[in-house]
Amino acid sequence: MANLTEGAIAPDFTLPREGGGTVSLGDFNGKSVVLFFYPKDDTSGCTTESIAFSGLLSEFSQAGTVVIGMSPDSVKKHDKFAKKYDLSVILASDEDLSVLNSYGVWVEKSMYGRKYMGVERTTLLIGPDGVIRRIWPKVKVAGHAEEVLAAAKSLAGGTI
């Protein structure tokens, strides 16, 4: 992660979100926040990850934790994505890449020898004080939401 490490203050942001309105990190002062960055709505890995976080949302809520997914897709795409898969997590739209860049997740990637810019699938657990408590870079989707939930519960219990 560019510049961001565990123990650093998470950069604040305000972005448009699915369903209308905006979402800001500062809206959740006093609560923990899971911020998961994903490449693209309605692709297999991103869909699986978003469904997994949505399925565990009540458990995250019980742990005092809000879940926000973020990609460079438009609000219109987020709305379709959320409706199609009945997603309950907040989906933030960062079309100008400002937040993705500030968190260091907009990176050069390579597929089949072709280089391009894209989102590195990354998750952060941010404490109620705005401090980054855990970072999961280059996330593998299988079992990831459950691992993040365990960390959120540990944070709520005071062990992180």
What does this 3D model show about the protein?
The protein is an alpha/beta fold. 29% of the residues lie in helices and 28% in strands. It is built from five helices and nine strands, in the order E-E-E-H-H-E-H-E-H-E-E-E-E-H. The strands form three sheets. Strands 5-4-3-8-9 form a five-stranded mixed sheet. The chain has a two-stranded antiparallel ribbon with strand order 1-2. Strands 6-7 form a two-stranded antiparallel sheet. The longest helix has 13 residues, at 144-156. The two termini are 20 Å apart.
**Helix-strand sequence:** EEEHHEHEHEEEEH
Task: Tell me the helix content.
Answer: 25-40%
Overall residue-averaged pLDDT value: 94
Instruction: Assess the beta-strand content as a share of residues.
Output: 25-35%
What is the gyration radius calculated from CA atoms? Answer: 15 Å
Looking at the structure, what is the overall shape? globular
The largest pleated sheet is described as: 5 strands, mixed
Cα end-to-end separation? 20 Å
Give the strand line-up of the largest sheet.
5-4-3-8-9
What order do the helices and strands come in, and which of them pair?
Elements: E1 14-16, E2 22-24, E3 32-37, H1 44-55, H2 57-62, E4 65-71, H3 75-85, E5 90-93, H4 98-102, E6 106-111, E7 114-119, E8 122-126, E9 132-136, H5 144-156
Parallel strand pairs: 3-4, 4-5
Antiparallel strand pairs: 1-2, 3-8, 6-7, 8-9
